[in-house]
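Support case: MU-OXO-diiron complex. Customer-provided input:
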Amino acid sequence: MLSEKMVKALNKQINREIYSAYLYLSMSAYSTFEGLKGFANWFMVQYQEEMTHTMKIYDYVNDQSGQVKLMTVAQPPMEFGSPLEMFEKTLEHEKFVTKCINDLVDLAIEGKDHATRIFLQWFVTEQIEEEANDNEIIAKLKLVGKEGNGLFMIDKELAARVFVPPATSEPSQA
Ligand code: FEO
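Agent response - structure generated as follows:
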């Protein structure tokens, strides 16, 4: 059983995750238009991941007999500048999401909501991975600068990313 406050906070997070999906879909579209197929693929996979994050929370609220309430999804930007700028914006956004997840954990601890605290652990770990991925790509992009060959190689590398649906059996073995 979730508190009203927690249902409200989780519904807000559903909205943020959908917005994240929308943002990365927009980055994918922009990359395609810019002729960066690998970047477009990477962000398309990211879009799919964000939709699984959305549905994880959606299912959890339902399972806990809360009411999912969907809200307006904000329009994402359409232009993102250079690949480096695009990934810096991605990292910035993920840092914001990490803060939101941490706030949710604080709320769960405050309300002695052990189930939600355990549920959110998956997201805490996921955020570490998301930020690490972005940092790694940013470092590579800084290394190659505006050099065409380097950018071409990174684009090729990002083209190999494949969407892997997260395991559905929770809790984790940790
Ligand atoms: Fe669902 Fe990228 O945070």
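The pocket of MU-OXO-diiron is lined by residues 17, 20, 50, 53, 94, 97, 130 (CB under 6 Å).

Case will auto-close in a few days if no follow-up is received.
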